[in-house]
Amino acid sequence: MDSSVTTTSIARGARPAPELTVVIPTYNERANIPLLVERLRKTLDGFEWEALFVDDNSRDGTSDAARAIGETDARVRCIRRIGRRGLSGACIEGMLATQARYVAVMDADLQHDETALVAMLEKLRSGDIDLVVASRHLSGGSDEVFSALRQKISRGSSAIARRVLGVSLSDPMSGFFMIRRTEFNALAPQLSSQGFKILVDIVASARGKLRIAEVPFVFRERQHGESKLDARVAIDFAALIVAKLTNDMVSFRFLMFCAVGLTGFGIHLAFLQVCAMQGLSFAKAQIVATLGAIAWNFVLNNALTYHDQRLTGWPFITGLIRFTLICSVGALSNVGIASWIYDYDSDWWHAGIAGAVMGAVWNYLVSSAIVWKQR
Ligand code: GDD
Ligand code: MN
Prior knowledge:
Elements: E1 20-26, H1 32-43, E2 49-55, H2 62-72, E3 76-80, H3 87-96, E4 102-105, H4 116-125, E5 131-135, H5 148-165, E6 177-180, H6 181-187, H7 198-206, E7 212-216, H8 232-245, H9 252-277, H10 282-305, H11 314-344, H12 348-370
Helix pairs in contact: 5-8, 9-10, 10-11, 11-12
Bound molecules: guanosine-5'-diphosphate-alpha-D-mannose and manganese (II) ion (MN).
The site of manganese (II) ion has 5 residues, from loops.
């Protein structure tokens, strides 16, 4: 038999996968890369490990810094993502790109105490545990470097995650954890690539099926660069709650799209008012108000609802034109459906709501597919 087709035996020159991959999402962390690698080398000395940086095309050359190290130490690798941004998405992509038995996620900015990795690995090696979370809220851990306000926000959102999603962790907002690769791969299709809260998502999606342990760690001061957490994190968190509560039926994006649509309705009325004061006929005023509201919705949706795919420059202009055409059809179908229902059900608000829902769903689905298509 030809031995080259035997897949079960180990091929000549084969190099087995490491036991542990540490996935490290980065955005503008150049100065921290060599420091972190040095610390990992020290802490994980004696283990089979690799560090996998997932960089969203940072302008400061983070991926070059990682690759430069990788040239002489193949345990250091880097995925460079172009045209995409987002912490959860970067973590998922990195975790899906490994053969290691265990996968950890940690921040690049040295705020996560890498020495906790050893305790985490030992818990997984015991075989009774699928996921180990490094927690700031266990005794022995802390997040004292945070301002009092941020500590409050962190605790508040943890409480919400526990109550609403039934996640029984002391620190569900932690960005530092280790999981069995096979368990992660099974859950991956259910995870949302938007947002910051990958751990909450993993635990909520597993619906109690993961055996979880926690180890304490002290959250350290950031050394170089700055935090990327901003007000949008709150929106992302709300999005995750909505998605998980509705079994991924209602996306937060759709709710956001509807909320923007409501503000557009207000703008529409305001335009009508102004046009009436200018002495325009109702038909003309209605056209101006409709176009004004569509442009308003486009700008807001581009900035908020589709923030991760927002259009700039020429695509912004062509996007606006497409959006206007789509919404015009949406408005016509809204009126059509409403009057058709009104023929059968003379309660005008039943007809009105049905028309509005129809229009919103149409505008959302078609805009998602044609204007802000995921690249
Ligand atoms: N690839 C990629 N893409 N990486 C990102 C992005 C992104 O869009 N945004 C942030 N990162 C990387 C950063 O470079 C850093 O390595 C890590 O993700 C954490 O980002 P920070 O900006 O340092 O977040 P933080 O310190 O404010 O928040 C940390 O603590 C939170 C707990 O309150 C993180 O660990 C959060 O995950 C955690 O929830
Ligand atoms: Mn940080």
